[in-house]
C-alpha cells in the first residue's frame, strides 16, 4: 500500500501560508493621500520621501527611484559611461534582466559561472574572463546569499572595473555590516511584485557619489538636470509614480522585521532539512552579517536519494503539503535560457562582430547547469514566514519522503519500462 500522498497515501497536511503581500491600513491611507492630492507623478513628495528613506536604509548618501529593476541596471551602466566596445561580466545564473541591461547600452554581456556552494558569481571565473575591454562587473546577490564582495572589490580594484550590485533579491542584506547596494559604485533594486518589498513594479538605484546620483536623476527624467530644471543631456523617461512610492513607504516599515523573521526561520529550516543526508544548505560566509531572502535555496544530492531526480522529490513534497508548498527550480542558465535570446532582436544587429559576441551559447556554465538540472531547490520567501507548526510540517514531509523513497524509485522504474516498448514502435 502506498504511503506517499503523490501515490494516493495520506498527506502530511496543508500549510497555513500567510497571504502575500502583507499590507494594512497604512498602505491604503498613503495611496488615498496620493489620489486626493492630484499629484500623481513627476518628483512628487512621496517619491522624494521614499528616495531619502530607502537610501538611508541602504546606508548610501543618495537614492534614485525608477520605473523597474531592469531599467535601473541600464541607467547604472549608462551613468558609468559603459557602451559600445565594452564588456560587462555577469553571472550566468540570474534573471535575464542582469544581462539584458548590458545589451541595452550596446555593450557585450560576458556570462561567467557561479560558485558551487553559494550559487553567486565565482570570483575566479570573473578573473578568467577579464579582457582589455572589460569595464564592469554586475554581481547578483542571488536568492539567499550575498556574492563574495571582498573578492569582487579586490578584482575591481586590480583591473579598474566598476561594480554594479544587482540587489533585486536582497533588500536589507549586509556584508561585514555594510548593506548591499552600498559596496559597489551603484546598487540596483527591484520592487516587482514577486520581490520581498513590492509596489507591483518599481526600481531603485543607490550610490554614495553625488555626481553619479545627479547623472542618474537626469537619465531618469528625459535629460533634465537633477533638480528637474533645464535639459542637460539626452535621455528618456524612467520615472516611478506617486502611487508606487506611497506603497513602498508603507512596505519599507515592515521590511526589517520580516527580514529578521525570514532569516531565523531559514536557519531553522536549513537545520531541520539538512538532518536528511540528501539535502544540504548553501555555504554561509561569516562575512554575512544580515541575510535577506528572495528564496531559500537547498542542494539536493541525487545519489543520497537513490538516483531519484529532484523534480520527483519536489512533486512528492508538494503533494504531501496538499499543494500549499511554494517551491521551484532556479533560473535556467542564460547560455540556454528561453528568456534570454539576444539574437532574436533586430536592434541588437549592430555589426557582425557584435552579433557573434552576444551569442549566449558560446559561454560554458557547468556549475549553473548542474544547479538547474540536478541540484538546486528554491523555497519561496513566503515559506519563510510560516509559523512553527507549519515549519515542522514541511520538515516532516521531507523526512517522510526520504523514508519512503523506494516508492518514488519504483514509480520512476515503472515509467521507464512502460516507455521503452513505445520508443521501439516509434
Ligand atoms: C527581478 C529582477 C530584476 C529586474 O527587476 P524588474 O523590476 O522585474 O525589472 C533584475 N535582476 C534580478 C536578479 C531580478 O530578480
Automatic annotation (TrEMBL):
EC number(s) per entry: 2.6.1.-
Domain of life where this protein originates: Bacteria
Keyword vocabulary terms for this entry: Aminotransferase, Pyridoxal phosphate, Transferase
Assigned protein family: Belongs to the DegT/DnrJ/EryC1 family.
One annotated GO molecular function: transaminase activity
Name by which UniProt lists this protein: DegT/DnrJ/EryC1/StrS family aminotransferase
PANTHER family for the chain: DTDP-4-AMINO-4,6-DIDEOXYGALACTOSE TRANSAMINASE, TRANSAMINASE
InterPro entries recorded: DegT/StrS_aminotransferase, PyrdxlP-dep_Trfase, PyrdxlP-dep_Trfase_major, PyrdxlP-dep_Trfase_small
Record bears the keyword Transferase: yes
EC top class, as a word: transferase
Amino acid at each position: 500500500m502506498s504511503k506517499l500522498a503523490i501515490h494516493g497515501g495520506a498527506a502530511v497536511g496543508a500549510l497555513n501560508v500567510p497571504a502575500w503581500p502583507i499590507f494594512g491600513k497604512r498602505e491604503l491611507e498613503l495611496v488615498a493621500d496620493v489620489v486626493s492630492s492630484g499629484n500623481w507623478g513627476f518628483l512628487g513628495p512621496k517619491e522624494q520621501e521614499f528616495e531619502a528613506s530607502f537610501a538611508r536604509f541602504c546606508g548610501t548618501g543618495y537614492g534614485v527611484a525608477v520605473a523597474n529593476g531592469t531599467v535601473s541596471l541600464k541607467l547604472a551602466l549608462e551613468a558609468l559611461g559603459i557602451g559600445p566596445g565594452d564588456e560587462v561580466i555577469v553571472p550566468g545564473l540570474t534573471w535575464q534582466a542582469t544581462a539584458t541591461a548590458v545589451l541595452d547600452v550596446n555593450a557585450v554581456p560576458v556570462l561567467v559561472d557561479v560558485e558551487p556552494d553559494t550559487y553567486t558569481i565565482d570570483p575566479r571565473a570573473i578573473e578568467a574572463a577579464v579582457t582589455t575591454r572589460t569595464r564592469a562587473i554586475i554581481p547578483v546577490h542571488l536568492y539567499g546569499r550575498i556574492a563574495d564582495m571582498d573578492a569582487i572589490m579586490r578584482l575591481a580594484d586590480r583591473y579598474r572595473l566598476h561594480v554594479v550590485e544587482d540587489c533585486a533579491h536582497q533588500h536589507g542584506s549586509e556584508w561585514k555590516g555594510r548593506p548591499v547596494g552600498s559596496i559597489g559604485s551603484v546598487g540596483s533594486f527591484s520592487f516587482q511584485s514577486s520581490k520581498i518589498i513590492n509596489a507591483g513594479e518599481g526600481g531603485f538605484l543607490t550610490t554614495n557619489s553625488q555626481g553619479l546620483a545627479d547623472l542618474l536623476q537626469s537619465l531618469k527624467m528625459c535629460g533634465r538636470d537633477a533638480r528637474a530644471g533645464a535639459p542637460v543631456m539626452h535621455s528618456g523617461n524612467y520615472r516611478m509614480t506617486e502611487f508606487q512610492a506611497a506603497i513602498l513607504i508603507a512596505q519599507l516599515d515592515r521590511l526589517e522585521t520580516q527580514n529578521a523573521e525570514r532569516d531565523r526561520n531559514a536557519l531553522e529550516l536549513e537545520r531541520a532539512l539538512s538532518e536528511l543526508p540528501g539535502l544540504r544548505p548553501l555555504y554561509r560566509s561569516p562575512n554575512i552579517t544580515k541575510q535577506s531572502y528572495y528564496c531559500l535555496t537547498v542542494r539536493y544530492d541525487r545519489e543520497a536519494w537513490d538516483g531519484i531526480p529532484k523534480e520527483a522529490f519536489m512533486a512528492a513534497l508538494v503533494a504531501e503539503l496538499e499543494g500549499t508548498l511554494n517551491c521551484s527550480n532556479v533560473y535556467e542558465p542564460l547560455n540556454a535560457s528561453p528568456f534570454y535570446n539576444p539574437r532574436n532582436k533586430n536592434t541588437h544587429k549592430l555589426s557582425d562582430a557584435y552579433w557573434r559576441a552576444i551569442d549566449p551559447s558560446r559561454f560554458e556554465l557547468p556549475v549553473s547547469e548542474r544547479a538547474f538540472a540536478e541540484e538546486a531547490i528554491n523555497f519561496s520567501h513566503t515559506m519563510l514566514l510560516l509559523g512553527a507548526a507549519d515549519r515542522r510540517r514541511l520538515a516532516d514531509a521531507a523526512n517522510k519522503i526520504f523514508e519512503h523513497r523506494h516508492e518514488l524509485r519504483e514509480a520512476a522504474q515503472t515509467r521507464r519500462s512502460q516507455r521503452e516498448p513505445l520508443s521501439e514502435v516509434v
